[in-house]
User: Fold this.
Amino acid sequence: MNWIDLTFGLQALVTLVVIMDPPGATPLFLSLVSSRPIKEQRKLAWQAAMTSFIVITAFALFGQWILDYLKISLPALKGAGGLLLLLVALELLKGNANKDEATRTGNVALVPLGTPLLAGPGAIVAIMLFVQEAGRDGNSGAKSLALALAVILVHIIIGLTLMFSTKIVSVIKESGVELLARIAGLLLAAIAVEMLVSAVKEFFPGV
Assistant:
C-alpha cells in the first residue's frame, strides 16, 4: 500500500465522517436513550455503529446491484430516508409521551440511528462512488483495503462518540434532556427537509 492508496483511504475517511456526522447524531441519540440505564445506553451506541457498518458494507458490496434489481433511483432512496427522518423528528417535537412510545416500540439503535441517520442516502452514495473509484484503478486491491479500513475506522469513531456522549445525560438532568429532544427534533426536521428538497430537485432538474 503506497501513499496514493493511503491518501485515498484518508479521503474516504474524512468524507464519511463529515457526511455521517457523529457529533450531530448525539442529540437525537441522547434524547432517545436518556430514560434507559447507562449500561444499555452504551450498548445501544455500539449497536447503532454496528447497524450503520452493516448497511454501509452491504451497499459497498452490493449497492449498485440492489438498486438496479429493485429499479430504485438514488433520488428515491434519498426521499424515502428524508420522510423517515421527518416522522422521527415530529415524534421528538411532540413531547415526552410520543418519545417514550418510540423508544418502547423498537430498537432505536437500528432505526432511526443506525439508518437512515448515520447510514443515510448521503453515506450510501459516497461509499458506492468510492468503490467505483477504487475499481477503476489498476491497483484496486490496495485501494479497496484502504477503503475498508476507512469504513471500519469511521464506525469506531461513531461508536466512541455516542458512548462517551452518554455521560452528558447525568449532567443536564431531565429538563436538559427535554430541551435536547426539542433541539434534536428541530435539527432532524431540517435535515429531513433538505433531503426531500434535494430528492425533488434530482427528480425534476428544472425545478
